[in-house]
Structures are given as C-alpha cells and as structure tokens.
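Data availability (excerpt). The following record was deposited with the supplementary files.
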Amino acid sequence: MTVVDITPHAVTRRTIVVTDNRQLQSLVGPHNAHLGAISAACAVEVHARGNEIAIEGDATAVAAAESVIRRLMSRAAAQQVIETGDVSAAIRLASTDDDSSLALKTRKRMVQPRSPGQITYLKAMRAHPLVFALGPAGTGKTYLAVAQAVSLMLAGEVDRIVLSRPAVEAGERLGFLPGDMREKVDPYLRPLYDALNDMMPADQIGRLMESGEIEVAPLAFMRGRTLSHAFIILDEAQNTTPVQMKMFLTRLGEGSRMVVAGDQSQVDLPKGARSGLDDALETLSDVVGVGRVTFTARDVVRHDLVTRIVAAYDARSAGRGSPE
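Predicted structure:
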C-alpha cells in the first residue's frame, strides 16, 4: 500500500500596512504590475487590499518578498518614482545586507546600488584610492563612479572631477576627424556627459565646467599633468595601450581617487595590440591600495533583455571562442 502525504505545507502570511495612498500606488505599480513581478520572482502570492499588502507562501519566500517590498517602500517614502528596473533591482538585492548607508547624494537624486556587484563596487571605491571596474555594459561601472565623484564633491571631499576616455577607439586619431577639437571629441565623451546630466542640473554643470571644477576630456589631454584632490575616472579603459594606461595612472596626485572602468570583451584596438587594461591588471595585481571589482551579466541593470543578451554572448564565447 502506498501512503501519500496529503498534509498541506505550512503557509506563512505577512501583512504590510502602507498609510500613504500615493506611496501605495507607486509601490504596487500600474495594474499591480510591481506586485506581480515580486510574486513571480519570490514564488509567493502578493495582493493589495485597501491600504495593506498581503504576502502568502513558504516562510523563506515570504521573508524575501517582504524584504523586496520594504526596499521599495523606502524609495517611495523618499518621493522617488518606482520603475520596473527598481523592482528588478530590489529582487536582486533581497538576500543581501542593508545597503542604505551606501546611497549617494547628488543634486538631482539619491543613487543606490541595484545589484550585489554594485554594493561591492561602492564599498571598493570607499576603501581604495584606485579601483578597476570590469565587466559588461549596463552594469553601472561608469554611472556609479560619476555618482560617487559628484557625491564626494558636494561633501567637500574632492575639489574637482575629471572624466576621460580614449577619444577614438583605434588610437585617438583626432586629426582625421572633421571640425574643431570640441566637435572632434564630444561624440566619444557623450556617455560621460549623460551620466553627469543625471546627477546635476545642466546650468550647474556648465558653470563647473567653465571654472574647471568638472573636466571632461579625451585621454590624450591627460599627459604631463598631476591631478590632486580630484576624483578621476577613465571610461572604456580596454581601448588604451599599455603606454597610455601607465600615463593615466601616474596622474594620480595627493588626495585624489581614481576609477578605471572597462569591458575586456570589447577591445577595439588594432588586431594584435595589447590592451592597457589587461596590462595594468597584470602589473598591479599585488599592489596595495588597488581595488578590483568584476561584474557579470547578473549585475546588468538596464532592460531585462540586455541581461539575456549579455549572457547569450558570454555562453557563445565560452563554447566557441569570442566572436570576430
């Protein structure tokens, strides 16, 4: 005789009260979409009833869902809009320790980590004067570095921000481009301007750039300088040569911090040329004061499809070699 256990598994029920109707509306999302995403991700039932959010399911799953909702409540309480990406970020962070102390204050918004890798990154930028940030696009390498720089400037911990990247992927051949110097380099520096515009009003950025407190410049303009009491960021570092990288790293002056961000899978140097990023990582592997953070597809915080795209390319590279 076969005995079938028909005893139902214990169901845990948790109720969260949200007294502010506007916060509740932001929290549940259009047509309860945010609650639906939490329900699917955590394998629980989540329902809004009046000013209450009810969670039912396995005890561990209910605890995870509650953690997600309380993270989002903190965002709603700060009058910040809750979007699909914020819900995904809260779900990714459900099993991590509280990260509220890592929030970065900028003129426009509070910037918070949205993945475990981003938490590690922010901690590394606090702990080390030089940090290498490695990994695919969409993981926040440059964005969080700019947020950290703006936050430190507003707190008076650095006097200026210097943002740089190789102006042209194949060796900074500026002379072959049409227009004056500004017209030549601006398209290659646009991602840095975009990040700044998310952190500060445009008129304030203009004033700070005029005064030299914020500088956005191609890598070639860094030669021969010593940058003191500054936060210095190099973007697209995989497209530097070893000589360029050494030149950049040795610009670090007294009271300064530096972040070098790059994606080692996206090198645009001439075939056979060694990346300055790879060379620096190898050379500085045992140097005290140098931090290193490696992001993966799990840390991508753009559209969910970007995460799947990155994972697909990584899988193909692992199985058949990198695409040409």
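Summary of structural features: Residues 241 and 273 are 8 Å apart (CA to CA).
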